[in-house]
Amino acid sequence: MNANRLKRSHLKTYLISIISVTAIFSSIGTLMIRGIEEWGYSSMEKELSGLTRGHSYSIGNALEAKRVVDSLLAERIMMTAKAVSEEPEPYTTEYLSGIAKAMGVDSIIVYDEKCNARYSADEAYIGFSPPDGHPAKAFFDSTLISYVGEIREDAVKGGDIKYGYLRLSKGGFIQAGISKAEIGTMMSGLELDRLLNEIKGTGSIRFVSYAGRDFKIISSTDEGSKGKYLEEDERLAVSHGKSLSTPAGTDWDRIYRVIVPVYSRGSNAGSLIIGTEMKETDSLIVMLSNFGILLLGTVYAVLLFMILSSYRKDKRLWKVAYTDDVTGLPNSLYLKEVLEDKLLRMRNTNFAVLMVNLTDLKTINMILGYETGDRMVKEISERLETLAKNGLTLYRFAADRFVFLYEGCRNRHDSRAIAMRIDDLFVKPFRLNESFKYMSVQVGISDTDGAQKSADQLLKEASVSLGSIKDVEDSSLAFFDSYMENELQREEAIEEELSKLLQGEGDGRFYLMFQPMVSMEDDRITGFEALARFESKALGLVMPMEFIRIAERKQIICQLGEVIFREACSFLRELKTIGQDEIKVAVNVSGVQLMRDCFSEGVRDIIERCGADPSMIELEITESILVSDFEEINERLRLLRNQGIRIHLDDFGTGYSSLHRLKELQVDTLKIDRSFISSIDDSGEEDSIVRDIISMAHRIGLVAIAEGVETKSQKDYLKSNGCDIYQGYLMSPPLEKHKAIDLLMQINSGPELTDENQTA
Question: H-type helices in 152-242, by residue range?
Fold first, then answer.
């Protein structure tokens, strides 16, 4: 499924809505015109027959008419509230005023989930909070979805008004109302006394006559009709309780005569004869039809505007939520929704997920820049899209990963064939500026194979199978298998144990080990790196590389990080109590933690609660964090340094840092990766890379720390080249807290160490 198909699918929903609304309003318009025509030719008959039914029947008619009008008023109020509810917040006063005017209501107020008036067509209501006993508060406290009340006095501006309420799904409700004056205007034509006067005084009525039970006209507005008797056909119709309507007069002066039986207490009391001019009725039909069409057109235009506005807004949100900016392909969020839907609806269909990993993309981004990398990704997506047919759909899953969803995959032979075709696409190099670049890929495959799996499970299995590919030259393809499944089960077990631990449950133990950092100048301990450890009865000791990765993936690293940081601050406080208040403690921070908006404030809060000195705290970040968003991360580091916290750039030299931007980076220390230190041996050969890193760090004002120092020759080399601090097994492995304190007291409280007595 490509982006254009996604757009058509998205547009289809709104086109259906527009067509449905248009069809509904067309039907309403047709029925309305027909109703007006029927009313035009029968309204006088109905009205005048009502006059002859007696005062009690007239009152009954008036009450029924009042109920109908009241129902129409309630419907108008609720239509207004529903129209507002379908438009997303925020609302402006002008917008609500426009809706009120278009819908013929006098007041629109939108209350939030705390029963406070947040928006209103009249600014006087904004901020109003109804007290207990107020109808709006009673509706808010009830379980009703909608309600229309009786006419009451308005609590803010006074005056009588009829209000209706509609509850919103997210909390809060909409209140719309029509004033008593407006209601009075609508009801005026239905008041009995006024109705009688209007019938008598309407210009379209030529005459009104009343005949008794003997069919003799005993009263008439036409004096010449008095004393006459009804015709035979008119008598017959009235005797059988039927109405008779006949045109009379000439073509130039047509009169429409209506004769209806009049009942009193269930029996025939006479007949009513009405003569009305046809031309005025026709004019009235035309006028009311035009007015009705105008009113329907206005409501239709408002609804159409709301649908189109919603479409434009949703289109922008949909594009952000479901498509990749660089390639225009549907993204991972859309993939998960589509896959979950297909797995649910097509249970007997086999699916395969082929996850394509671009192994060299990070290097290209670092060397040639992200703009060049994006152009290459765009070209890669175009090549991959050539395969997107016959049940294959392509998605941009992550920065360096694409996913093919293979619907109807018969067996692994089919998916392997697709993987080989993917590999063939990368035989041809990509053109980058003035040079060519080959891109190698890896494909991890997972499939349903007749089993019921979720979208998350399939994607996780494909990712795990990718992670199992260790050597690109050996194989670029891997299927998810039972061994990987065992690894996945272990991962889920670790996640469960970690979650229990964070909830204060389970039998797991989480603690810190501390490895000393030693000054090259005097061999005294200047600080400790806090290293997290986790073990449980079921899993035994789980190494940090394993459980930290799982915590990041399962979105619990932030809670885990808070536990680590609190323990580290507690260790600092303990050091202070024994007089070692100049010893620093370094804590590793993941990119997930650092990118949280509240991370800096959370660190400050923990420091304050623990009573720790911020200047004694050091946070260690890895170079890989900088790949995601250098500017944003650098700003967050600046906020942390402003609190007095020092920042270490850990694992420096592993290939992510851009050297020309290093000077801009908000860090205090470079920690040289242990892989460089291990290359220093006893042969006396110099390692120029380590020397250059130390020199570069000093030139830009940073402290150089070497990690993984295990031999005296390594230390001597580092010291001779100006390295400031080292850590490693030469001094000590990571220690539990009490042993770390004992070592600190032994080293820093005794005579200064020499190289000879240190290695004795």
Answer: 180-187, 192-201, 232-239
* Three state DSSP letters for 532-573: EEEEECCCEEECHHHHHHHHHHCCCHHHHHHHHHHHHHHHHH
* Token reading at 112: 């939030």
- Sheet containing 441-447, strands listed edge to edge, beginning at the edge strand earlier in sequence: 392-398, 401-407, 351-358, 441-447, 477-479
Helix axes 3-51, 55-85, angle to 10 degrees: 170
Q: Which of 394, 396, 397 is nearest to 405 (CA)?
A: 394
Cβ atoms < 10 Å from Cβ of 238 = 24
CB atoms under 10 Å from CB of 265, counted, come to 9
The enclosing H or E element of 667 equals none
- Cα atoms in the Cβ-side hemisphere of radius 13 Å centred on 621: 25
User: Other C-beta atoms within 10 Å of 284: how many?
Assistant: 15
Query: Which two tokens mark 172?
Result: 């809060």
Lowest mean pLDDT among 148-152, 306-310, 687-691: 306-310
Q: How far apart are CA 338 and CA 6, in angstroms?
A: 11
What pLDDT was estimated at residue 368?
A: 73
What backbone phi and psi angles, to 5 degrees, belong to 426? -105, 10
- Select from 617, 689, 629, 620 the least CA-distant residue to 649: 620
Contact by Cβ (8 Å): 650, 620: yes
Give whichever of 54-58, 212-216, 549-553, 587-591 has the largest mean pLDDT. Answer: 587-591
* Cα R_g (the chain), whole angstroms: 42
- Position 109 scores a pLDDT of 93
Of 440, 73, 48, the C-alpha closest to 270 is 48
3-state SS, one letter per residue, for 314-333: HHHHHHHHHECCCCCCEEHH
Q: What is the 3-state secondary structure (H, E, C) of 416-450?
A: HHHHHHHHHHCCCCEEECCEEECCCEEEEEEECCC
Q: What is the pLDDT of residues 405-450, one digit of tens each?
A: 998 888 888 888 998 999 888 888 887 777 778 888 889 898 887 7
Q: What does the buried/exposed string (b/e) look like for 470-496 if buried means 16 or more CB atoms within 10 Å of the residue's CB?
A: eeeeeebbbbbeeebeeebeebeebbb
Mean pLDDT lowest among 556-570, 680-694, 740-754: 680-694
CB-based contact 133:111 (threshold 8 Å): no
**DSSP designation for 596:** S
Tell me which amino acid residue 501 is: L
Could you write out the DSSP letters of every residue in 356-373? EEETTHHHHHHHH-HHHH
Residue 419 is encoded by which pair of tokens?
Answer: 């993987």
Q: Around Cβ 689, how many Cβ atoms within 10 Å?
A: 13
Q: State the DSSP code for 114.
A: T
DSSP H or E run through 204:
none
Residue type (1 letter), 68? V
For the segment 299-316, the average pLDDT, to the nearest whole number, is 75
In whole angstroms, give the CA distance from residue 459 to residue 353: 7
Checking if the pLDDT of 280 tops 50, the result is yes
Is residue 146 very low, low, confident or very high in pLDDT (cuts 50, 70, 90)? very high
pLDDT value at residue 384: 92
Report the SS3 class of residue 178.
Answer: strand
Candidates 17, 37, 54; CA nearest to 281 is 37
Alpha-carbon gap, residue 571 to 738, rounded angstroms: 10
CA angle 85, 87, 93 (to 5 degrees): 90
Lowest mean pLDDT among 28-32, 249-253, 699-703: 249-253
Q: At a CB cut-off of 8 Å and minimum separation 6, what does 147 contact?
A: 139, 164, 165
Q: What is the pLDDT of residues 583-599, one digit of tens each?
A: 999 999 887 788 787 78
The lowest-confidence range among 210-219, 231-240, 602-611, 652-661 is 652-661
SS (H, E, C) 264-303: ECCEEEEEEEEEEEHHHHHHHHHHHHHHHHHHHHHHHHHH
